[in-house]
What does this fold into?
Amino acid sequence: MSVLVYTESEQGKFKKAALEVASYAKAVASQIGTSVTALTFNTKDASELGKYGVDKVLNVTNTNGFDAKVYADVIKQAAKQENSKILVLSSSADSKYLAPLVAVNLEAGYASNVVEAPSSTSPFTVKRTAFTNKAFNDTEITSEVKIIGVSNNAFGLVENAGSATASDFAPTMTEATVKVESIDKATDKVSIADAETVVSGGRGLKGPENWGMIEELAEVLGAATACSKPVSDLGWRPHSEHVGQTGKPVASNLYIAIGISGAIQHLAGINASKVKVVINTDPEAPFFKAADYGVVGDAFEVVPQLIEKLKEFKAQNA
Amino acid sequence: MKILVCISHVPDTTSKINFTDGDTKFDTNGVQFVINPNDEFGLTRAMWFKEKQGASVDVINVGGPETEPTLRKALAIGADAAIRVNTIATDGFAVAKELSQVITDGAYDLVIAGRESIDYNGGMVPGMIAGLTGANFVNNCIGLEVDGTTATAIREIDGGKETVSTSLPLIIGGQKGLVEESDLRIPNMRGIMMARKKPLTVTDASTSESKTTSVKFEKPAPRGAVKLVAPDNLDELVSLLHNEAKVI
Ligand SMILES: Cc1cc2nc3c(=O)[nH]c(=O)nc-3n(C[C@H](O)[C@H](O)[C@H](O)COP(=O)(O)OP(=O)(O)OC[C@H]3O[C@@H](n4cnc5c(N)ncnc54)[C@H](O)[C@@H]3O)c2cc1C
Ligand SMILES: Nc1ncnc2c1ncn2[C@@H]1O[C@H](COP(=O)(O)O)[C@@H](O)[C@H]1O
It folds into this structure.
């Protein structure tokens, strides 16, 4: 019985989240003394997964694109073949779409947003976030088959000397019930979910015309751009950039908040980020209480200077 | 079209989160409960289908009697009838089982649930309902049109969105975007009066099979004070981010 991990790739390259869930799966496998099998679609080169502790890779060739039910059914077949009782997935949009379907397929308990390796494997207990990052919850999974959804950037990448062997896996593929008509995705931009750094702007930036410096700062840092809720409600930025309790969750390594007051609903959604930097004119802004580093100052002066300093830093450290 | 909107009864977003009984229970003292924001977007979209396409809209909650004011609020917003499955919901799987039973018995065409509830953030109930009932499923839904038995939906994906087509019966995991913030309705006096006369049926739970149990809660460790950097000393900020925080 091996631990089964679903590793997502994009254009044949593993996503960072895939390497993170592989690292997590390895940690669980070591706890219970077993091996790790990864299930992947359209990625032949397994060596990268080997570095993160995967022993065996099942590769499915699929030319039809993603379909949650079809993929959930494939995961079930892989779990049966590998006799896996523990399944690990990421917190990507696709993984969160799949996991509950797999849970029904395998009559498994599912714990999402898990932030640490199991504190105990018998009973099987994991720590997950709850109340939108305002608390943690120790959850026991009581069913025989267990599914863990790992929170982005919570576990990190852990290298393990090892090598993985790849084998083709040809499951029965059911017919898709949801047909993708079109995809609208900026391929040249980092998405908030994948980003290690997120640069976020609030109403303090006064208007959409002032986002040039936010985008430039994001570019220098290789970051994704985000915004507070009123900014997307006002139509200054697209809804897809809205982060917080009712927007996208952010769990980046670095979150830079510019002209954002730090309302409880905003903080709830970004609190899982490791290091927070706040730039705000108001020293009383609540965000300073939740931040690691702060600059009390005018964004229109601070941000352009910060961009220059970062460019200098990059030139020196290149 | 028969629509069912799943309503999760959750603490208001401004609530202070505390625990009792040796950190095993959520402290409801002084907490105001509301319709889960993701469900409110779904309910508002359902009202649009009711008004524009003559759909019927029922709302449902799996929970104890304390959730009834939340269901009444949904009725005041305009739902036709409410159902409460009387049980203390223990986990997402158990809730999904109860909901699936009602959905199958009631032959609903469209079920709108939320992407996640903001209390336990399980993000699992809609997908599990889809798995259990065999209905089609679109998660992270930010746009929905129905024409006869065909549905067109927009799903948020990492870094963008995709437009999909599918057919009824359909389960939606909805969120903001299904309707705009400004479309949300505050119940008016007439709505509140009418809601009192609308049916709120209480049914018994059929099964309650949970696969996970909450053991204990914990609050995040308090963080250290913020380190302030002067606006004319940004070299220091860059250096702190590089050497101390190690994030650049
Ligand atoms: C149910 C509910 C859900 C919500 N969900 C979310 C959510 O998911 N995400 C979210 O973000 N909000 C959410 N909100 C809204 C939240 O309560 C706040 O209203 C919102 O976060 C405020 O956005 P802001 O900080 O951009 O704007 P403001 O509160 O207006 O703050 C602007 C800040 O910019 C500063 N500033 C002004 N000028 C400058 C300058 N030149 N340079 C630097 N700083 C400057 C000001 O000092 C101020 O602190 C929700 C609210 C409710 C009721
Ligand atoms: N007890 C419940 N009663 C009715 N609907 C629920 C309940 N719990 C969750 N839901 C629905 O499922 C969605 C996702 O919840 P969850 O999987 O708990 O994050 C919510 O937004 C609701 O639409």
